[in-house]
């Protein structure tokens, strides 16, 4: 053994620190310096390290990583996560990032150090004399992961909850005077596997840390004391049912008095209730019905009235102790296919919290941190948060209670990709135990509205197991609604469905999705998807739309996790000569990402009888190959392309909606648009007059009108009327904004109107789909040629193998095995004369759907020289190739514009293609068509298949 024994000075230093910190005579705060040692060889138990003072130090609350303990990152680091993007281990482009001391990984945020295994923590304590004969509990608010405890040389027990405090009854172990607490923490998978990608343990998100965080304390309570209080609101009868247990280990005789009192945070109080309880052995169960008055304050998202219940236990007229718990008078229920809160329809507008905390690598345990998160979510129009495969600390529930947020909590498991459920193994037992601990610890919080075992399960018997899970909890505790798992399976026994069926892009769907395969419109919904289900449906993980990395974010990672993945992507972009475009790529792709999220969210809001949605995500998911799916970064901060006010216009309790049959019009048509509203506010909107307006690109209102005055009930798919407006007077092509306002709630949509007829632009330009002899002859003679490539014309090495689509990347290409599209929209200079008759912003909008659907991205690095595109495709950040849809060059004496967009096929059904072709031809006919680059015909021919 190489442990240095004894370290008496360290032991007494820690003992004095405990004495100095103890302000509350019934509580010993254990935060501070602990003795510590890594047990990488698993020899600590055999060598009885608990008998001796450990020879290193660590600060708690904290983790090994926050304390700089552990091993440097290497190619052999034993990560807790599935690695689908394994190219890093062998691809030559990653070779510089595999070198010792220079390791950078693209999978997730990278910790400074890493350790998986056992580590020992030790602390001296001095037990006061008046604790003799009391109940003493040791509480670690959050441990990661398994804790085994020794008091002096006696092993007390083991705890392995991932979502609740680790509590130890030390009443029989601690006598007055000095003692040593020794804790062995092991963050490896043991006899049950919750799944390596579960956000409770995974390196994809918080990381597989080793340590203790939150409140760490010894607490003394009377020997005769109360167990936890459980409060069951009964809104219909203006009362609560209180269940508790009197613990009496000394088996005292006689009776005790239990007094209940409730006070609202708003100040209202409820008359107290007393009950004498006859003691029956060492435990006595108590159930009391406590009237809350004629008009108790109700809790919901609009008025989150919170009560505190206090229970005072007296014995022989002596007050023994007082316990308290928050609760709310609320009933979160289902009526048909919709959720209700206190009998009123509500709609879940949610996002995920995947344990993403880059400043520490573990979840915060203070209410202020969680209040900030919920307030940000609220500003973006949300009322719901799902905790994906983990359970948050107490502070999250407390903050959600005060802000009126509806939470879905899960039992720390994603039984998939290496783990299964329902097969009778250790995980089956653990889920039952963990779910009971979670409900026991947090069940009184009114924000705790929904519960699932965890995420996307697998296993041959998982359906039967999870159906039983739902039915058992329905019978045991009616305070919330239950479903099997997030994502699947859908079973009739669940209180609600969680399924990915109702969303505009599915896993593996690629370019066949609604948003990529069907011309843009907003008249579809999910009524046919949910028509056979009898309970509410929540669409699972909608969105997953990516944005380009914000490399300015790298400097924000000043904690234990670093954005080494961003450093790789930034270097790749620079290697391809586009470092200066990073911010432009971010903003342009962000505008497209926002448009995709708007389409997803509004489809859910349009669906009659729908239950709600859960975004993936409002903020970035840094793992699984780097999934930049948020309009906010992992710190919940804006990225600069959409504000909370803009986002909440289409994501809110009240949202005007339109059912546009298309987004692209010609001026020979009439705009005919049914108008609806989704309204899940505090009360109906009475006597409102919906108004609409159509603004041109300059912001001038060109058309406007109103719809019949009405009262809007709670619910969605409520019809407000139809807008009818002729577009005959629109004489210029361009973008238009349709706005609908109802009772102060305004939403907008971008439309594009083009002339049905266009003037001739001249005959200088030859438009062709092949660089044939006629085209080459024209170029040799100094002519002008527009080469618009036919489908499949590009060689694979020139870009023909790059799948592009209108939407941005779904999740990311690494984790989806290359699911298309591989593009993040377009970037262009809207002031370029090539677009004078095809007005555009600098980024993709609906008028570019046709171009992306009929386009091929041309690899500009397959051409000699520095060719700058007129229209750039933003490539996946992993490959960061220079891609274009339009570029121009001199060829011989002539001038050539190459279009990766097929502008000719089925042109009569494609008004955007007609208008873009017209705009390009008009530009090429003029004197402004002066290409800077010069290429030989062979270079152009090299792009094309033979």
UniProtKB/TrEMBL annotation:
Family annotation (Gene3D superfamilies): Galactose-binding domain-like, Glycosidases, Immunoglobulins
The family this protein is said to belong to: Belongs to the glycosyl hydrolase 2 family.
Signal peptide (residue range): 1-22
The Glycosyl hydrolases family 2 sugar binding domain, residue ranges: 30-221
Keywords for this protein: Glycosidase, Hydrolase, Signal
GO BP field: carbohydrate metabolic process
Domain Glycoside hydrolase family 2 immunoglobulin-like beta-sandwich: 225-330
TM spans (from-to): none
Pfam families reported in the protein's UniProt record: Glyco_hydro_2, Glyco_hydro_2_N
GO molecular function annotation: hydrolase activity, hydrolyzing O-glycosyl compounds
Protein name according to UniProt: Glycosyl hydrolases family 2
Taxonomy, superkingdom: Bacteria
């Amino acid at each position: 053994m190489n442990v240095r024994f004894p370290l008496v000075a360290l032991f007494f230093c820690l003992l004095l620190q405990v004495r100095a910190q103890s302000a509350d005579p019934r509580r010993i705060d254990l935060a501070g310096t602990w003795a510590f040692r890594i047990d990488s060889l698993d020899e600590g138990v055999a060598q009885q390290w608990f008998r001796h003072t450990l020879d290193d130090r660590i600060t708690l609350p904290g983790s090994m990583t926050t304390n700089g303990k552990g091993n440097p990152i290497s190619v052999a680091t034993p990560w807790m996560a599935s690695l689908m993007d394994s190219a890093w281990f062998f691809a030559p482009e990653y070779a510089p990032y595999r070198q010792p001391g220079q390791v950078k990984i693209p999978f997730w945020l990278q910790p400074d150090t890493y350790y998986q295994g056992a580590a020992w923590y030790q602390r001296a304590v001095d037990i006061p004399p008046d604790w003799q004969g009391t109940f003493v509990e040791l509480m670690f608010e959050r441990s990661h992961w398994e804790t085994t405890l020794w008091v002096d040389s006696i092993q007390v027990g083991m705890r392995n909850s991932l979502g609740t405090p680790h509590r130890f009854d030390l009443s029989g172990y601690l006598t007055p005077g000095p003692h040593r607490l020794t804790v062995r923490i092991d963050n490896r998978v043991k006899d049950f596997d919750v799944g390596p990608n579960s956000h409770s343990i995974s390196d994809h998100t918080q990381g597989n840390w080793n340590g203790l965080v939150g409140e760490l304390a010894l607490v003394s309570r009377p020997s005769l004391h109360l167990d936890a209080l459980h409060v069951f609101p009964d809104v219909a009868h203006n009362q609560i049912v209180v269940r508790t247990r009197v613990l009496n280990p000394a088996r005292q005789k006689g009776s005790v008095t239990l007094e209940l009192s409730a006070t609202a945070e708003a100040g209202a109080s409820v008359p107290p209730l007393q009950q004498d309880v006859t003691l029956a052995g060492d435990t006595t169960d108590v159930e009391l019905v406590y009237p809350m008055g004629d008009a108790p304050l109700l809790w919901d998202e609009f008025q989150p009235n919170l009560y505190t219940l206090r229970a005072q236990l007296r014995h022989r007229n002596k007050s023994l102790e007082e316990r308290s718990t928050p609760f709310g008078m609320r009933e979160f229920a289902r009526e048909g296919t919709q959720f209700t809160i206190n009998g009123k329809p509500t709609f879940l507008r949610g996002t995920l919290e995947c344990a993403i905390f880059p400043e520490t690598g573990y979840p915060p345990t203070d209410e202020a941190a969680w209040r900030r998160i919920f307030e940000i979510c609220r500003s973006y129009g949300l009322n719901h948060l799902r905790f994906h495969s983990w359970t948050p600390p107490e502070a999250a529930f407390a903050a959600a209670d005060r802000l009126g947020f509806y939470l879905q909590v899960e039992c720390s498991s994603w039984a998939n990709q290496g783990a299964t459920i329902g097969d009778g193994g250790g995980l089956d037992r653990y889920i039952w135990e963990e779910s009971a601990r979670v409900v026991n610890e947090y069940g009184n919080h009114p924000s705790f509205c929904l519960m699932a075992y965890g995420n996307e399960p697998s296993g041959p018997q998982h359906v039967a197991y999870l159906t039983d899970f739902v039915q058992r909890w329905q019978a045991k505790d009616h305070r919330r609604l239950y479903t099997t798992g997030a994502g699947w399976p859908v079973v009739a026994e669940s209180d609600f469905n969680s399924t990915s069926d109702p969303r505009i892009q599915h896993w593996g769907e690629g370019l066949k999705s609604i948003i990529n395969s069907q011309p843009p419109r907003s008249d579809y919904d999910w009524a046919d998807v949910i028509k056979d289900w009898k309970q509410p449906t929540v669409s699972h993980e909608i969105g997953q739309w990516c944005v380009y990395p914000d490399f300015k974010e790298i400097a924000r990672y000043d904690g234990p996790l670093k954005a080494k993945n961003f450093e790789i992507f930034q270097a790749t972009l620079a290697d391809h000569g586009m470092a200066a475009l990073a911010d432009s790529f971010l903003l342009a792709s962000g505008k497209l990402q926002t448009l995709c999220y708007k389409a997803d969210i509004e489809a859910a809001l349009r669906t009659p009888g729908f239950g709600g949605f859960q975004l993936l995500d409002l903020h970035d998911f840094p793992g699984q190959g780097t999934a930049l799916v948020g309009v906010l970064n992992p710190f919940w901060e804006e990225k600069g392309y959409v504000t909370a006010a803009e986002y909440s216009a289409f994501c809110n309790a009240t949202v005007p909606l339109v059912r546009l049959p298309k987004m692209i019009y010609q001026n020979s048509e009439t705009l005919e648009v049914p108008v609806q509203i989704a309204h899940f506010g505090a009360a109906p909107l009475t006597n409102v007059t919906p108004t609409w307006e159509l603004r041109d690109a300059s912001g001038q209102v060109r058309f406007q009108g109103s719809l019949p005055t009405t009262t809007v009930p709670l619910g969605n798919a409520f019809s407000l009327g139809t807008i009818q407006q002729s577009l005959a007077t629109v004489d210029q092509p361009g973008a238009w904004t349709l706005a609908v306002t109802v009772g102060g709630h305004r939403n907008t949509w971008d439309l594009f109107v083009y002339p049905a007829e266009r003037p001739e632009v001249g005959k200088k330009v030859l438009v062709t789909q092949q660089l044939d002899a006629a085209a080459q002859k024209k170029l040799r003679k100094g002519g002008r040629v527009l080469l618009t490539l036919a489908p499949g014309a590009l060689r694979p090495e020139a870009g023909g193998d790059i799948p592009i689509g209108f939407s941005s990347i779904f999740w990311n290409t690494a984790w989806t095995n290359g699911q298309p599209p591989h593009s993040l929209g377009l970037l262009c200079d809207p002031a370029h004369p090539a677009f004078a008759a095809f007005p555009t912003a600098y980024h993709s909008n609906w008028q570019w759907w046709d171009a992306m659907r009929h386009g091929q991205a041309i690899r500009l690095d397959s051409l000699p020289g520095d060719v700058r595109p007129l229209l750039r495709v933003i490539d996946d950040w992993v490959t960061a190739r220079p891609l274009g849809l339009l570029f121009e060059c001199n060829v011989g004496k002539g001038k050539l514009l190459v279009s990766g967009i097929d502008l000719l096929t089925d042109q009569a059904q494609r008004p955007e293609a007609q208008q873009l072709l017209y705009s390009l031809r008009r530009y090429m006919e003029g004197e402004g068509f002066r290409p800077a680059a010069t290429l030989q015909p062979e270079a152009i021919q090299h792009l094309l298949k033979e």
